């Protein structure tokens, strides 16, 4: 993992003064010749030619004969794939690759890593070239060393020191230490007072100070569609997200066990260091979960960033069916319709809601002028301000004995105005569904339950391990809500995707 050369160019100076710093490593260049055949290796040109070629690759038209309005195929064409900050620089003698280029402080920092692979057939993937990552890190250290300069004298002073520093940082072109503060202390014959324990991670630039608090929020949602026709099976998707916020001192490492009855897929945050997919024996049985041998766990070990972040996304199966079974019936004409909604709450669902509403939208009709109804069996009914939806507020609980609720009503519509219908989506937010014409319609269910998840997904508090250990407050919250829950009219058609027919071999 060595570098063929390091350069610093100025994009603000004239052509004769654009090269600010140049350092080549002949021993690395000799190794490059040995690794490549003579007709494959592209020799590094003069500093001025390299500067002009790199600035052209970056899109600068300075030093070029082409005018600003003239199309340049090499620069303006979109057929070339970009892998910034790695470029393929075109020269008179061929193409130079890979070239790592970073622009900052009005300067262009460049290095050419050594490729210890055969380039006669094709360029290897960048992920297989560790010299590219090492050169990128070294260029960032050089940028931090030079800093934001305000005068040419200050820049020249830093450049003169850079020659001396690189002798210790990258002797013979091989970086050995990119910590410029410790290297500069050794050059000036000074002791390094503070031992370097590692660079502060970019994802946690500021450490927490104060009371320590660890919070988890498990938010689960369900998407479902129901229709009583035999050819249309009920569709449902259960998915969720676990958000975490760790107000802990230092750079802690946390291990948590996620338990569930039916956890399916799990996608973790980049901060997760380890994820065990095998079954873990949980150390608790929370009251909100169904006790049984199916309870399983997934262990995650992670280093949290400062802010709140999604620890993982998951999907789960619904072995107990839909949380709410419903039947929606609507029939009538353009002037009035009769609607009937029947709901049955599952015994597996917690009968305590933050809210539970059923919306009955009426598409491609005039505004609702009158509703004849004796009222729902539980809750209340009202008309939305746009007069296009009937809203049934079921309340916070279903009747405990039957777990059932129903609504019957006759809805009368006014005259449909074409001009009003065109402007209505902008004025009220009501968007006409092109499929829901005639009696094709649905009832949409909205609910939210606190301290409950249908999949049983939970954080095992006894499995939490925080290193380094210390006192902290732990808060774990749960919520279960609907994402898109439709009950289609049994008298009309429904939008369903039929599975492809099985092909017998």
Automatic annotation (TrEMBL):
Coiled coil ranges: none
Any one Pfam family match given in the protein's UniProt record, by short name: Adap_comp_sub
SUPFAM superfamilies to which the protein is assigned, alphabetical: Second domain of Mu2 adaptin subunit (ap50) of ap2 adaptor
Subunit structure: Probably part of the adaptor protein complex 5 (AP-5) a tetramer composed of AP5B1, AP5M1, AP5S1 and AP5Z1.
Lineage summary: Eukaryota, Metazoa, Cnidaria, Anthozoa, Hexacorallia
Location of the protein in the cell: Endomembrane system
Gene3D superfamilies: Mu homology domain, subdomain B
Principal subcellular localisation of the protein: membrane
The MHD domain, residue ranges: 211-488
UniProt-listed InterPro entries: AP2_Mu_C_sf (IPR036168), AP5M1 (IPR039591), MHD (IPR028565)
Family assignment from sequence similarity: Belongs to the adaptor complexes medium subunit family.
Topology with respect to the bilayer: Peripheral membrane protein
Record PROSITE patterns: MHD
Domain of life: Eukaryota
Name by which UniProt lists this protein: AP-5 complex subunit mu-1
UniProt keyword list: Membrane, Protein transport, Transport
């Amino acid at each position: 993992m060595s570098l063929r050369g390091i350069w610093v160019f100025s994009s603000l100076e004239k052509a004769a003064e654009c090269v600010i710093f140049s350092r080549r490593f002949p021993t690395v260049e000799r190794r490059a010749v040995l690794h490549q055949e003579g007709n494959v290796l592209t020799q590094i040109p003069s500093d001025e030619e390299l500067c002009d070629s790199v600035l052209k690759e970056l899109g600068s038209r300075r030093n070029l004969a082409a005018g600003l309005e003239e199309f340049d195929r090499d620069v303006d064409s979109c057929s070339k794939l970009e892998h910034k900050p790695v470029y393929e620089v075109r020269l008179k003698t061929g193409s130079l690759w890979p070239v790592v280029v970073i622009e900052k402080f009005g300067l262009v920092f460049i290095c050419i890593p050594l490729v210890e692979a055969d380039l006669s057939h094709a360029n290897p993937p960048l992920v297989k070239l560790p010299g590219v990552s090492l050169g990128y890190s070294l260029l960032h250290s050089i940028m931090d060393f030079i800093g934001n300069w305000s005068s040419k004298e200050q820049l020249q002073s830093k450049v003169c020191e850079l020659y001396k520093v690189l002798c210790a940082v990258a002797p013979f072109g091989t970086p050995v230490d990119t910590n410029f503060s410790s290297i500069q202390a050794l050059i000036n014959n000074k002791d390094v007072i503070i031992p370097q324990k590692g660079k502060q991670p970019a994802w946690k630039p500021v450490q927490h100070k104060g009371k320590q608090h660890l919070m988890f929020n498990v938010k689960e949602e369900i998407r479902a569609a129901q229709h009583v026709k035999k050819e249309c099976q009920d569709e449902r998707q259960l998915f969720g997200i676990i958000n975490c916020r760790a107000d802990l001192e230092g750079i802690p490492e946390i291990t948590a066990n996620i338990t569930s009855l039916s956890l399916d897929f799990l996608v973790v945050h980049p901060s997760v260091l380890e994820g065990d997919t095998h079954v873990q024996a949980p150390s608790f049985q929370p009251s909100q979960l169904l006790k049984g041998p199916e309870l399983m766990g997934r262990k995650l070990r992670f280093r949290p960033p400062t802010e709140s972040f999604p620890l993982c996304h998951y999907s789960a199966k619904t072995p107990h069916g839909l949380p709410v079974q419903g039947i929606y019936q609507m029939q009538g004409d353009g002037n009035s319709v009769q609607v009937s909604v029947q709901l049955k709450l599952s015994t597996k669902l917690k009968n305590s809601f933050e809210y539970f509403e059923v919306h009955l939208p009426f598409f491609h009709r005039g505004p609702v002028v009158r509703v004849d109804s004796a009222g729902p069996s539980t809750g209340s009914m009202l008309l939305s301000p746009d007069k296009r939806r009937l809203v049934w507020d079921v309340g916070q609980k279903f009747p405990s004995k039957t777990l059932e609720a129903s609504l019957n009503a006759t809805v009368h519509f006014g005259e449909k105005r074409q001009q009003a219908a065109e402007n209505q989506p902008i004025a009220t937010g009501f968007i006409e569904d092109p499929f829901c014409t005639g009696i094709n319609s649905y009832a949409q269910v909205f609910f939210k339950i606190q301290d409950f998840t249908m999949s049983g997904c939970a954080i095992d508090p006894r499995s939490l391990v925080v290193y380094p250990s210390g006192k902290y407050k732990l808060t774990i919250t749960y919520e279960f809500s609907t994402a898109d829950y439709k009950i289609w009219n049994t008298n009309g058609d429904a939008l369903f995707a039929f599975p492809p027919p099985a092909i017998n071999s």
